[in-house]
Amino acid sequence: MKARSFSHVGITVSDFNQAVRFYWDVFGCPLVGVADTPPERVRTFFGVESDAPQCKIGWIRVPGGGVLEIFAFTPQRPPVPVPWNQVGLTHISFNVRNLNRWHD
Questions:
Q1: What is the pTM of this model?
Q2: How far is CA 15 from CA 18, 19, 91, 96, in A?
Q3: pLDDT along the chain (104 residues), means of 10
């Protein structure tokens, strides 16, 4: 089997609306879909133990290709620093133009 293209990357965020605004304001990536996950699926699929767990999922389209799939859970675990040499996702990267002009 050969990959045809990049599809998506999943990111768990602490504030759903703030993440959507960031990717729109900084990169021009629109939110193209939103779903609220039923509590039973949050428990069984994602393994979040709580009386009433919640998960909002959003799909943010990156111009020219892939999708950022953002997850916002309740309850949340606090963020933990990830060492670079730990196996797992370390970063995502976009190709952009005029970065210095934007920064200035």
A1: 0.82
A2: 5, 6, 19, 25
A3: 80 96 95 96 93 96 90 90 80 78 80
